[in-house]
Amino acid sequence: MPEGDTIARAARLLRDAIVGRCVTRVEVRRDPRGLRPPAAGTVVRRVEARGKHLLVHFGDGTTLHTHLRLHGAWHVYGAGERWRRAAHRARAAIHVDDGRVAVCFDAPLVELRRAVPGGRPPTPGVRALARLGPDLCTAGVDLDAVLGRLARLAPTTPIGDALLDQRVAAGVGNVFRCEVCWAHGVHPATPLAALDPADRRALYATAHAQLRANAGRARRATHGGGLAVYGRARRPCPRCRTPVVRTREGRDRRVTYWCPACQPPPPGYGPAAPAPA
């Protein structure tokens, strides 16, 4: 699943390839509002990552907004280079004047935006952007603002669900949810009420640090050159050597990895059914 670090890397790839270039053609399949793509000769002004969202801004005021979800990806190809995914899987393509093309494959959310006074109502993607919390991939993220948003959640909310809530802070997905909780010895089902303000800040500070560190890496690493618990079911915990377990936790029953010794479940926690391997 692409998380904030993946989107930051994709944004850097696109910035290096297309920002400042004139487009020769922009193709977008099935824009939800039927907006026309930017015309040839329009300049790519900037590329922006916001949590798990990526936006390409053009000189004519148009923005291409994508969210990759599970299977989406951005690729950049040189002139004549063979694409690594089939052309029918491309949802958007930005061709620029030096022959390169940036292609978005398999993304479920691809839409064009253009500021028009009194225009059409915003799409669900635009509304999702408006609700995003501070982006944990940015250098100067305001953790006080994050904690203020966190305080609006119900005290019974599990910290695992809170970390995934993009309205609190943008960028964390399932991998970093598991890794951050392990780093602090906190079970993902621990309710917010059981965490004092210092614990809450420390969890989000670690999420910020891990996302920032991995934005420049091809292979994710949070502990010892790899991941501590995510994807390591039945393998020894790096801290205590207890076998890591894999269960489904939280509101959406997301696959979760945790150490039963280092991350003791909260009082009243029922035995979760193991997730299929």
Quick structural summary:
With 277 residues, the protein is α+β, with helices and mostly antiparallel strands. 23% of the residues lie in helices and 21% in strands. A hairpin with a 3-residue loop joins strand 3 (53-58) and strand 4 (62-67).
Description:
By secondary structure, this protein is an alpha+beta fold. It has 2 domains: 128 residues, MutM-like, N-terminal (N-terminal domain of MutM-like DNA repair proteins); 116 residues, Helicase, Ruva Protein, domain 3. Helices cover 23% and strands 21% of the residues. The chain contains 6 helices and 10 strands. Strands 1-6-7-5 form a 4-stranded antiparallel β-sheet, with helices on one face. Strands 2-3-4-8 form a 4-stranded antiparallel β-sheet, with helices on both faces. A hairpin with a 4-residue loop joins strand 6 and strand 7. Helix 3 crosses helix 6 and helix 5 crosses helix 6. The radius of gyration is 20 Å and the shape is elongated. The model has no long low-confidence stretch (mean pLDDT 90).
* Quaternary form: single chain
- How much of the polypeptide forms β-strand, as a percent range? 15-25%
Low-confidence stretches: none
Q: What CATH first level of the largest domain would be assigned?
A: Alpha Beta
Order of helices and strands: HEEEEEEEEHHHHHEE
In the CATH hierarchy, the architecture of the largest domain is Alpha-Beta Barrel
Neighbour order of strands in the largest sheet? 1-6-7-5
Major β-sheet profile: 4 strands, antiparallel
